[in-house]
């Protein structure tokens, strides 16, 4: 079904009941009707009736995080996630952005979906951090005055250490139970290589041969969730070719897993790729989802630590993966899991949102960080690199840096008997 046919049909599902309002991050912040899902649907209906995509209307669409909390809350099954994707694609086609906005988006989408470009940035960025120049620049506030978005980009970058490369294949330990492909991602690969290493080790210790294709690139998540559909399709086709010959593709970043599970819809109108896309989407699993399906085999060793588990939006709302990470953590002896208040409200990362909308993103990050601190946990567990950077930055700004770890790193520490010191390094 084409977008002009699909949009009116989807818009008709909304009965304007308002159940979505308390779950919407921007409505929580501002209390403005047009910055709620119901209000944005009203604007979409206006556009369908001929109202042009002017700056005021686009501003409300741009302010949406695309977190999908409203989709979870909606009793009528409104596919708001699809509505905002279609609308953003229309915005990209029809709305002329300012020169500054175009330049910023060119930087973001010319850098973050390309691991090799990120890798080239690692050396200078690491030197910048190790020299102490980063702290000096922040004290001056020069970047904030020049561009809040560039200041956010600089501030969110995690401390960079060495980034050892993974082999192309990691052999199962003990009897082989499965052969899986592993997506290494873009930001995950270059900024959080320890997460990928831990993921490969955990899968191997649970009896999986892990295939890690060296030629893999971006899955297209940032492009897809920003309305850049043609670009997302190009990334999707390459990812399908890369992982077509494995039985299961394991993904350890929430946004990436969400986008790969959408390939069937993204390429549905492409006869050459539709069936291949559907097959790959059906074989894609989040790491926690797959490990629970597989069942535990490797012995868990005690890990005496208290963790707060953060629900990444593209894991909980987009993929419905909520219980599985908690089940994995609950299976570790002596580990205590504490819940974070208002878990369905986004932390403000939302892909590129904290770069394009740094003001509201920081407010949401501060809100989430306060809830994390209230748990009294020692470690924050987050299964998405954007969330990890966003909440770590907010904790640091509140003067309460905390260790942030991925579910894979917690499991890895338990399976290898490392103890809490195996991962407790604050990101900020």
From TrEMBL:
Coiled coil: none annotated. It catalyses: glycolate + A = glyoxylate + AH2; (R)-lactate + A = pyruvate + AH2. Gene3D superfamilies: Alpha-helical ferredoxin (1.10.1060.10). It is an enzyme of class 1 (oxidoreductase). It holds the Pfam family Fer4_8. Residues 6-34, 54-78 form the 4Fe-4S ferredoxin-type domain. GO terms for molecular function: 4 iron, 4 sulfur cluster binding; glycolate dehydrogenase activity; metal ion binding. This is Glycolate oxidase iron-sulfur subunit. It comes from Actinomadura namibiensis.
